[in-house]
Amino acid sequence: MKVLANDGISKSGIKALEKGGFEVITTKVAQEQVANYINTNDVKVILVRSATKVRKDIIDACPGLKIIGRGGVGMDNIDVAYAREKGLHVINTPASSSESVAELVFAHLFTGVRFLHDANRNMPLEGDTNFDGLKKAYANGIELRGKTLGIIGFGRIGQAAAKMALGLGMKVIAADKYVNEAVIRVDFYNGQFINVEIVTESLEDVIKHSDFITLHVPAQDGYVIDKEEFQLMKENVGIVNCARGGVINEVALIEALDEGKVLFAGLDVFENEPNPEIQILMHPKISLTPHIGAATEEAQDRIGTELAEQIISLLKNN
C-alpha cells in the first residue's frame, strides 16, 4: 500500500512504515495535482503538515483514499468532519510537538526581553562604528524570572510552556474554555520533580494580570486578541503567538507596539501566511520565525513514528 507524505516525513517515520509493508512516496505534489496523483498511483494514505490542504474536492475525487494524516496538531487544512462522514480515518499527532513549540515560545520571550531580534539586525550594520550606542540602546533588558506568564489555551502545548515557565521561576496563570485545572509536572534531570496545580481563570483576568502572554489556541472565527484586549493589558507587556495566524489582530498589534503599550511581540504564525504583511516583517519590535514551531529533529521523529504506528494499526491490524 502506498503512502504519499506530501509535506515530508522523518526518516524514522519512513523506516517504520516500510517495516510495516508500506511504500512511502515523498515527492512534493502541487496542490492542484494532488487528487490526480493519488488516483494515478493508487495512494491509500496522504500525510500532510500545514502546507497541503485536503478539502472536500480531494476527498470526493479520491474514492480509494483510506487515511488522511496530519503531522502535528491543528487540522484546519483538512475537512475533518466531511472526511469522516465519507468513511475516511483522519489522524494527527497532538502530543509530538508540544515541547518543541513551547521551546520556541521561550526563544521569542528571551529574544524580546533582551532585544536580540533588533541587536542581530543592527550589530552587522553598526557594531564596528556605533558599539557604545548600541550597548546603550539595548541596556534595559528584563528578567523573565519572577514575572507572570499568561497562557491563553491550556492544552498540551500551553501546559508544556507552563512547565518551562515554572522551571524559570515564573508565575503562571492560564485561561481555557475547556480546561478547568491542570497539574503540571516539572521534571528535573536527576529524576526529581515537582507538581504544581494551576486552576484556569477568565480570559480577561489573564490578559489584565500578565507581564507576558502566549497563545495556544486553534484557528478561530474571530480574533482572540483585538483592540479591546490590548487596552486591558499591562504597560510593556510582551506577547508571543506560535499557535495560528489570525488569532491576533495584526493591525491592532502594530498600533499597540507603536504606542509603547506592548514592549515586543514574537510571531511564528501570521494572518496572511505565507505572505506576511511587510509592516509586520519590518517592525523593529517584532521577533520573527517562519512557522517553525514543530520543526525540530526530535519532534519530527516523534511525529513520523507516531503517524506510522497509527497507520499500521488502522490498515494492517484490522
UniProtKB/TrEMBL annotation:
CDD domains: PGDH_2. It comes from the Bacteria. Keywords: NAD, Oxidoreductase. The keyword NAD applies. Residues 107-293 form the D-isomer specific 2-hydroxyacid dehydrogenase NAD-binding domain. Residues 6-317 form the D-isomer specific 2-hydroxyacid dehydrogenase catalytic domain. The keyword NAD applies. Pfam families: 2-Hacid_dh (PF00389), 2-Hacid_dh_C (PF02826). Belongs to the D-isomer specific 2-hydroxyacid dehydrogenase family. This is D-2-hydroxyacid dehydrogenase.
